[in-house]
Write a structure and sequence with these properties.
- This protein is of the alpha/beta class and 330 residues long.
- The chain folds into 2 domains: 142 residues, Alpha-Beta Complex (Quinone Oxidoreductase, Chain A, domain 1), CATH 3.90.180; 140 residues, NAD(P)-binding Rossmann-like Domain (Rossmann fold).
- Helix content is 30%, strand content 29%.
- The chain has 10 helices and 16 strands.
Length: 330
């Protein structure tokens, strides 16, 4: 590789930021202890906000965007990693506080790095990415709270998106009856192929509903928030659990205490950014066991880094299906 390499860098101009393709050198990189030659990153909703400038994701400027990366260690001052190791990073403030994965080279704090499970290629880890890893954390939380396949239907909102697609596939593999909520009928065949057994139109969940509705869901994985999350909670069975990890519908929660004090419903937040290393390693171990390979392939496509400005607009507008892997070398 030449001394110069490509990256998507966000800069702030007149109070507004936007990510653009530019060239960097090794000397531009932060002074962290592991140098990685990146092969792939991925596109997440948060990345879309950062690159498009539609959300204040970057905490400082300039900022190399991208909350995920997978690549090969080139140099390491840490005894935990050696040159040649295949590694990945999700979260920890990449693309926000720390320079991220939309770059052909990056220096990363060794405390943020996970070795790639043998079951996955570098490309496959980014087909999963933060979205898939978050989906696995959500499933693990449902299990922790005692939600079993025999308890009944489990709902996944935003089911055709990155988190939703992987959640549907994992839950179906584990034997759950998965109902997918989506506003895009054209994605039904895709979701059926991942294991969905039924559908709910997202409009049915986005209108204001009763604070306590008829019981339906044994559990749910929600990525939407706002009124959708409130309605899902109101429809959850006694002692059920709803996980929340997204805010595509808004940051508010117009709910009541009724489902919690009258049915014992649990609302469990999923923090994928700062989860402990032990939890991360377990989540990736479970992904290797419980996410079917065919689901990884059918739920993802690979795009060049040069296409990121357009892709960022699409994901913020809700027009991306499944997972998008970013090849940083094209």
């Amino acid at each position: 590789m030449s001394d110069l390499f490509n990256a998507i860098v966000a800069n702030e101009v007149d109070g507004k930021s936007k990510g653009q393709l530019q060239q960097l050198s090794i000397d531009d990189l932060p002074k962290e202890d592991v140098l990685i030659e990146i092969a792939y990153s991925s596109l997440n909703y948060k990345d879309g906000l950062a690159v498009s400038g539609k959300g204040r994701i970057c905490k400082r400027f300039p900022m190399v965007c991208g909350i995920d990366l997978a690549g090969t260690v080139v140099e390491s001052a840490s005894d935990k990693f050696s040159a040649g190791d295949k590694v990945l990073v999700n979260g920890y403030g990449l693309g926000e506080k720390h320079w991220g994965g939309y770059s052909q080279m990056q220096r990363i704090n060794s405390d943020f790095i996970v070795k790639v499970p043998e079951a996955f290629s570098l490309q496959e880890t980014m087909a999963i990415g933060t979205a898939g890893y978050t989906a696995m954390l959500s499933v693990m939380m449902l299990e922790k709270q005692g939600v079993k396949p025999s308890d009944g239907e489990v709902l996944v909102t935003g089911a055709a998106g990155g988190v939703g697609s992987v959640a549907v596939a994992i839950l179906a593999k584990l034997g759950y009856q998965v109902v997918a909520s989506t506003g895009r009928p054209e994605t039904h065949d895709y979701l059926l192929s991942l294991g969905a057994s039924g559908f709910v139109n997202r409009l049915d969940l986005s209108e204001k509903g009763a604070p306590l509705a008829a019981e339906r869901w044994a559990g749910a994985v929600d990525v939407v928030g706002s009124q959708t999350l409130a309605n899902v909670i109101a429809q959850t069975k006694r002692d059920g659990c709803v996980t929340t990890c997204g805010l595509a519908g808004g940051i508010d929660l117009p709910s009541s205490v009724f489902p919690f004090i009258l049915r014992g419903v649990i609302l469990a937040g999923i923090d994928s950014v700062m989860a402990s290393m032990d939890i991360r390693i377990e989540a990736w171990r479970r992904l290797a066991l419980d996410l079917p390979k065919n689901a990884i392939n059918s739920a993802s496509r690979t795009e060049p880094m040069s296409a990121l400005p357009e892709l960022a607009e699409q994901i913020v507008a809700g027009k991306i299906r499944g997972r998008v892997v970013i090849d940083v070398n094209t």
